[in-house]
Write a structure and sequence with these properties.
Layout: E1 11-14, E2 21-24, E3 30-34, H1 37-42, E4 48-54, E5 58-60, E6 66-69, E7 77-82, E8 88-93, E9 101-105, E10 118-122, H2 141-157
Parallel strand pairs: 3-10
Antiparallel strand pairs: 1-2, 2-5, 3-4, 4-9, 6-7, 7-8, 8-9
Bound molecules: zinc ion (2 copies).
């Protein structure tokens, strides 16, 4: 029986070019689509497709192939992209008095496991194109962060 935290049982995923690899303690549960202008620059396509998990549930297996940066002044989010294919690999968010969060692009998730489905669009007001689906769509910075907060908290306190 595998024990929680047993590194031999972490799930592995890689970027589209295969150079940058991560390991996850478990499959993230919360997945969202972000249309903010930073995600539009960092992600291929019109928006980010990403999941939320605790930072300590993610390990970067190839730190030498990932460049980290803050893409906006004073942003608590540090985004890492693959130095070979420029695809986002993982982003870490420092939280005051709480465990750090990690954002893992859906493209980085292990392919041999059932993946979570996207639950919502955020920052939809700055979308590049309309998306026709049944998911809730939230516009504006504050409202977008507010709807994501329950997912943050569940990810943080998930056991
Ligand atoms: Zn975004
Ligand atoms: Zn790559």
């Amino acid at each position: 029986m595998a024990k929680r935290g047993d590194k031999n049982h972490w799930l592995e995923g890689c970027c589209p070019c295969g150079t940058s690899r991560i390991a996850l303690a478990r499959m993230p549960r919360h997945r969202f689509l972000c249309h903010c202008t930073i995600c539009q620059n960092v992600y291929p396509g019109d928006y980010a497709d990403a999941t939320i998990t605790r930072a300590d549930a993610v390990r970067l297996l190839t730190p030498e192939t990932v460049t980290f940066g803050h893409y906006k002044a004073n942003s608590p989010l540090e985004r890492g992209v693959c130095t070979s294919c420029a695809h986002p690999v993982v982003a870490f968010m420092k939280m005051p008095a709480m465990p750090d969060l990690a954002f893992v692009p859906a493209a980085m998730l292990p392919k041999n496991r059932a993946q979570p489905r996207p639950t919502r669009h955020i920052f939809y007001g700055t979308r590049k194109a309309d998306v026709i689906d049944d998911l809730p769509k939230t516009s504006g910075d504050l409202a977008s962060m507010a709807v994501l907060l329950p997912d943050f908290l569940t990810a943080l306190f998930r056991r």
